[in-house]
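Table S4 entry, Lipopolysaccharide biosynthesis protein.
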Amino acid sequence: MRDVAVLPLSAFIICKDEAGYLGDCIESLTSCAEIVIVDSGSIDGTLDLIESYIAQDFPIRLIERGWPGYAAQKQFALEQCTQPWCLNIDADERLDRAFVEALPALLDAPDHVVGWKIARRPFLIGYGYTPERAHERRNLRLIRKERGAYDLSLKVHEGIVPDGEVRPSKRGSLLHFRPLPLDEQILKENKYSSLKADMQMEKGREPCLIKLLFSPATYFLRLYFRTGLWRCGVPGLIQAMTGAAYSFMTEAKKFERTALRNGPPVETGSEIWWRSPQADPNETTKDKV
């Protein structure tokens, strides 16, 4: 099973119905001393898949637990880890070889460095994995044990909040393999934009016309030019436009939710010619002569 040195590292994964993706994720974690998997009710064969890897002596600890939300589930998984360093990885992600080779140096960081931000490269239909120079923004995924925790108020885009210095890793990345066709990807963006809109409104962030107008364009420009999706041809353009659609839906839903909060939609105006106007209860009825 192991073709690399085992490191003092726990990988933790939350999952549900990930039988089509989880295997390659597990197989990329051969340098980890421990793999903690928290499953929230899989019925597609995911549990059997995990058991098959346990039978192959992969150092997996499987925990079955109900779904409390993304941040709470990841915090629980993090707390189950026993190694000095912990790696947050999703079921549809894998470590590329450069990241595996960089791990020993990352784990040997000075004591004041509590975590590392790692780049992520998505798989684009019609292209494949984006090149190393066209990765998503780096996010904190590698943290020292008990030196960070999740913000439980976040419904989506949950992340670890560190209590010390975090550095970006200049080598290696997570490979994100979930090649959804656009009609399915839009459904996913619709779900996440709803979660984000609700989360922002709960925190008092009211709708803003400027954000509605400019956030989608800013999102597109960041993905297409700064991230480097322009290097990936038409698939890169589609990916950037999908991100802009997510940004637009988030801001638009805040406007709609505010309008619905103020009252349900009601037809009014002279266009409603077929409906008799309600009588004014304060107006007295006079007999017609």
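The domain at 7-176 is CATH 3.90.550.10 (Spore Coat Polysaccharide Biosynthesis Protein SpsA; Chain A).
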